């Protein structure tokens, strides 16, 4: 028999579905008996076994399987394995050629459409009142163009742009101008506004619209098409999707807890949940999300709220030690600077979610503190043995430190372990300590591509005061240089940064940049916050030798300057700048006035790499603060000023100045962790701003789009009036 005849015979053989499935089962499970195969095929092992035996003889006669009579099992032959492999590749190719595309209504909650010419036909008829024949022809032409994009998930705003371009190509300019190129269909917007009518406030309307905008951005820009397709098909439900970019830009600090087919995780903005219908979707989503929040950040890895979740697992001292040694030393050390998040006491908000989602066991504060002690003691021991270990500990205190625990913290810092110390509160979860770049590009082998920003957080003065070696701290910074070098090469190779990400990020914090000045940040605490003085038991500033402290700060600044020179030698063809941050909780108006008069705050310079955002917590006199600020600005370029909660008028003035400037204002107010960054009220919940101010985050960038729709008939009169009185002039005049 010729090879061609044998191929035809084999294809006829596989025309029976049961034979094809037998080959797949043998490839997936290995040797199987007849009864095993019958069970997998859903056949009765007693009444249908003769039929199955007939199929097996056919496969055996063509040399695809072989029967081992000793163990009474069937094996795939080499030819059978090759055939299964070829059939699998063919099936994958067929899946790639599927032409099903889903469109996302970003303005309508959980609304997904199957995009085909029928849907486009209805859109053209409804929006433009086109004649039936013209609408049908145009819909089919647009469908072909959308398919040529190669996307599985398409935002309907993009569909409208394709429709508009097609209309222009065919000379139908009058219809193109009616359609417009920005925003969702007016009919969708009217439906949304009817839902929001009861709100009666422009702030709430803007907040909802900004949520939809961020949701579209995530689905189309950050998530890979596979995950987005799972989401829009309803196979995966990702809760709180519209909030992911608020506050921490996808910087998730906690592990993923897999419970049945549900993935739960906590961000600094909200608790999110991913529900999956089946095991395959669960595994794919877990694989992607873990990659998104850990492996794709080559500059820094983040470990969970370590003590909280180890307590849930009832971890022992041996398991803590083994985890640190195996995970830190094997997987991270040498390649990354690692952040470990610790809680002292249990976070109230997290406690409530633990009770809700994990009612079978909630750790007590004392259990968490016990694991906190284990982790710190083991870290101190590891630091003394391994000079290449680079870890930053982020510590949130939810209750007062005991004397013996404070002694342990002192010993840990003195051994060179950098610690970020924060006080938690009922209103605000103080998650700190990120070491992340934000990447984004399809060309680079990560989902988040070229570097936009990077931060390293080190509580320098606390370490210095407690006896840490300055050289050890600078060693961590030099390690960061080694880590960032490959990313610089990636940036040089692909030569682009996603301005869309930067615009949305900075729009969400009420900033408008005409350029993309920031490529890298080095974030280091220089100075001691007053909250740290309280935590350390310092009642008065007189308890600290301010002159010695000032000398320590000065020496460390000199070390940072040397570090910048070192970094400059790596980053070629770019100007390396430093941004210093002066944080003050008193005399805010005098400091602000002095800084403005000094004229040391230039606008952002295009094509400049800004290295270093260094907050200065200075428990020294006002005059010394001002002198040091002037010295720093001679070396740096931009200063950030954090105003205290008493400076409400100044914050309002600065926020307005930033919004209306249209470019980077070099003087930026940083939030008080216990107050709203805009109005200084205390009701900020889990966000950086209170709910009345939250609406302005993420919507400034889309201001013109929003204003276009505020004058539709369906918009409540009270919303339009409030917009005209307060919002339009103040926030969208540019």
Would you kindly provide a written description of the structure presented here, covering whatever features stand out?
The chain is of the alpha/beta class. Among the domains are: 94 residues, Arc Repressor Mutant, subunit A (Orthogonal Bundle); 84 residues, no CATH class; 73 residues, no CATH class; 229 residues, no CATH class. The protein is built from 29 helices and 20 strands. The chain is flat and about 85 Å long.
Low-confidence segments, given as residue ranges, are 104-112, 180-184, 242-302, 425-466, 483-546, 575-716, 722-734
Radius of gyration: 30 Å
**What is the tally of beta strands?**
20
* Total count of helical runs of at least 4 residues: 29
How much strand? Answer: 5-15%
Overall, the morphology is: flat
End-to-end Cα distance: 80 Å
Give the averaged pLDDT, no decimals: 53
Quickly give the structural class.
alpha/beta
How are the strands of the largest sheet arranged?
16-18-17-19-20
Query: What profile does the largest beta sheet have?
Result: 5 strands, parallel
Binned, the helix content reads 40-55%
């Amino acid at each position: 028999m010729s090879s061609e005849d044998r191929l035809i015979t084999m294809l006829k053989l596989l025309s029976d579905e049961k034979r094809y499935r037998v080959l797949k089962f043998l490839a997936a499970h290995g040797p199987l008996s007849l009864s095993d195969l019958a069970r997998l095929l859903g056949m009765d092992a007693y009444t249908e076994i003769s039929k199955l035996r007939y199929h097996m003889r056919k496969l055996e006669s063509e040399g695809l399987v072989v029967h081992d009579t000793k163990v009474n099992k069937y094996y795939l032959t080499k030819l059978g394995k090759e055939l299964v492999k070829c059939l699998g590749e063919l099936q994958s190719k067929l899946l790639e050629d599927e032409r099903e595309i889903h469109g996302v209504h970003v303005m309508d909650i959980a609304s997904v459409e199957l995009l085909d010419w029928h849907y486009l036909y209805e859109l053209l008829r409804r929006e433009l009142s086109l004649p039936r024949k013209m609408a049908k022809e145009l819909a089919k032409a647009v469908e072909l163009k959308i398919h040529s994009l190669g996307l599985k998930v398409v935002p309907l705003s993009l569909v409208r742009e394709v429709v508009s371009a097609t209309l222009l190509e065919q000379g139908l300019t009058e219809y193109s101008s009616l359609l417009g190129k920005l925003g969702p269909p007016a009919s969708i917007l009217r439906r949304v506004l009817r839902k929001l009518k009861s709100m009666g406030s422009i702030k709430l309307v803007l907040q909802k619209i900004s949520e939809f905008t961020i949701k579209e951005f995530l689905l189309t820009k950050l998530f890979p098409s596979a995950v987005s397709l799972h989401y829009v098909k309803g196979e995966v439900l990702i809760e709180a999707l519209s909030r992911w970019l608020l506050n921490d830009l996808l910087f998730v600090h906690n592990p993923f807890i897999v419970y049945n087919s549900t993935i739960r995780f906590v961000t600094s903005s909200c608790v999110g949940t991913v529900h999956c219908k089946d095991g395959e979707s669960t595994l794919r989503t877990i694989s992607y999300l873990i990659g998104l929040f850990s492996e794709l950040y080559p500059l820094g890895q983040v470990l969970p709220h370590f003590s909280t979740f180890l307590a849930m697992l009832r971890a022992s001292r041996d398991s803590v030690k083994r985890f640190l040694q195996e995970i830190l030393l094997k997987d991270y050390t040498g390649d990354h600077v690692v952040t470990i998040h610790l809680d002292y006491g249990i976070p109230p908000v997290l406690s409530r979610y633990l009770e809700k989602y994990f009612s079978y066991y909630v750790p007590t504060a004392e259990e968490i503190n016990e694991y906190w002690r284990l982790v710190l003691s083991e870290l101190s021991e590891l630091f003394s043995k391994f000079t290449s270990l680079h870890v930053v500990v982020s510590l949130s205190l939810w209750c007062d430190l005991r004397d013996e625990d404070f002694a342990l913290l002192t010993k840990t810092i003195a051994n060179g372990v950098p610690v970020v110390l924060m006080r938690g509160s009922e209103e605000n979860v103080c998650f700190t300590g990120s070491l992340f770049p934000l990447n984004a590009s399809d060309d680079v082998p990560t989902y988040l591509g070229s570097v936009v920003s990077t931060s390293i957080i080190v509580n320098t003065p606390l370490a210095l005061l407690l006896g840490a070696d300055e050289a050890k701290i600078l060693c961590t910074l030099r390690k960061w240089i080694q880590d960032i070098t490959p990313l610089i090469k990636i940036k040089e190779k692909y030569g682009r940064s996603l301005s869309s990400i930067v615009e949305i990020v900075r729009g969400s914090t009420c900033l408008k940049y005409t350029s993309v000045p920031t490529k890298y940040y080095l974030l280091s605490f220089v100075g001691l916050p007053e909250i740290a003085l309280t935590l350390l038991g310092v009642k008065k500033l007189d308890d600290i030798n301010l002159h010695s402290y000032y000398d320590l700060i000065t020496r460390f600044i000199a070390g940072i300057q040397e570090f910048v020179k070192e970094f400059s030698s790596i980053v070629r063809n770019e100007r390396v700048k430093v941004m210093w941050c002066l944080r003050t909780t008193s005399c805010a108006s005098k400091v602000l006035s002095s800084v403005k008069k000094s004229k040391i705050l230039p606008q952002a310079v295009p094509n400049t790499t800004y290295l270093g955002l260094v907050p200065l917590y200075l428990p020294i006199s006002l005059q010394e603060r001002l002198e040091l600020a002037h010295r720093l600005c001679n070396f740096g370029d931009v200063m950030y000023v954090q105003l205290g909660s008493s400076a409400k008028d100044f914050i309002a003035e600065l926020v307005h100045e930033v919004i209306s400037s249209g470019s980077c204002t070099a003087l930026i107010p940083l939030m008080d962790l216990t107050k709203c960054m805009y109005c200084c009220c205390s009701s900020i919940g889990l966000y950086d701003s209170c709910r009345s101010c939250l609406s302005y985050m993420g919507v400034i960038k889309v201001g013109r789009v929003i204003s276009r729709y505020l004058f539709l008939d369906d918009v409540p009169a009270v919303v339009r009036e409030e917009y005209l009185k307060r919002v339009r002039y103040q926030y969208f005049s540019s």
